[in-house]
Design goal:
Elements (H helix, E strand, L loop, with lengths): L4 H5 L15 H14 L6 E4 L6 H7 L4 H11 L4 E10 L3 E5 L4 E8 L2 E6 L4 H4 L33 E5 L4 E4 L4 E6 L5 E9 L14 H19 L5 H9 L5 E7 L2 E6 L1
Antiparallel strand pairs: 1-2, 2-9, 3-8, 4-7, 4-9, 5-6, 5-8, 10-11
Length: 264
């Protein structure tokens, strides 16, 4: 489970469930094989692809079908390619549901992964952490053991499932939630991500806003309030104060001559 180390320093009582290490690739392979045999702590490689990863990996990377990749970028009018990530892990590894703020081509090289995607409008069912939490952009819901008392709307979450194997490329749009599991077939799994900036902002914004735009607005409002207040812990109480008594009592409508109060 990814966490932001800078934000974690501001959270006195936050305990990460993962540990980040920087080790040589040979050491990672040794740890990977060891954890596969002993069922000990799992390791997962997340490495930016650049000229420091070794000549053989770079040579393999350059054999990707870059003509096809570049044509897709141009066709969709995306921004520039920001980075590529090499991801290697064991069967059974899970990346909890989260969303990213870039366009993502998820290319599967070895093994199989099960991907469950949720559209941006599913945000109410997935209960994201606050923007200033170390697990920002992730859901608070444990998919293996959901707490329906805390997260009742999760019962209504509706996703789309895809299983990707060697040679498959899955497009994960920005702000789309995705939960990814490495399946048992194949032992180790290897994937490569292609991250792209969003395309240029259109001159004329069409209203009403799309779910993706609403998510971007919510994030920016949270960030703005935290910076203005100087303490992220004040954001929640301020927003509650704004809502209570105003937007919790949404409408008054007459039914058969009687006034009926509708609440959200």
């Amino acid at each position: 489970m990814y966490f932001d180390e800078k934000k974690a320093k501001d959270r006195k009582y936050y305990t990460p469930c993962t540990t980040r290490m920087e080790v040589p690739f040979e050491e990672f392979v040794r740890r990977l094989e060891s954890s596969a045999k002993t069922e000990g702590k799992r390791v997962y490689l997340q490495q930016t692809l650049n000229d420091t990863v070794g000549k053989n990996i770079v040579a393999d990377f350059l054999q990707f079908n870059w003509d096809w990749i570049n044509k897709q970028q141009q066709k969709q009018n995306w921004g520039h390619l920001t980075s590529n990530l090499l991801l290697i892990g064991l069967a059974g590894n899970v990346t909890p549901v989260h969303y990213d703020e870039q366009q993502n081509f998820f290319a599967q090289v070895k093994g199989y992964k099960r991907c469950i995607l949720f559209a941006p409008e599913q945000i109410e069912c997935l209960y994201p952490y606050p923007v200033h939490h170390p697990c920002d952009r992730q859901s608070q819901v444990d998919f293996d053991n959901p707490d329906y008392n805390r997260f009742p709307k999760f019962r209504y979450a509706s996703g789309v499932e895809a299983v990707v194997g060697p040679g498959d490329v899955l497009y994960i749009p920005m702000y789309w939630w995705h939960h990814i599991e490495s399946l048992l077939e194949g032992g180790y799994t290897t994937s490569v991500n292609f991250w792209y900036k969003a395309g240029p902002t259109p001159r004329n914004i069409v209203y009403p806003l799309k779910p993706v735009q609403k998510m971007a607005i919510m994030r920016n409002i949270e960030k703005m309030l935290a910076e203005a207040l100087g303490d992220y812990r004040e954001v929640g109480p301020l927003m509650n104060t704004m809502i209570q008594g105003r937007y919790t009592l949404m409408d008054m409508t007459e039914v058969n001559g009687n006034k009926v109060l509708y609440t959200d």
